[in-house]
Amino acid sequence: MADRTENNSPEMQLETVAEAISSVRGTDEIKALLADMCTPGEIRSICNRIVAARMLYGGGSYQDVINELGLSTATVGRVSRCLKNGSGGYLNYIKRINGEKPDDDI
Question: Structural domain of residue 51, as residue ranges?
Answer without folding.
Answer: 27-97
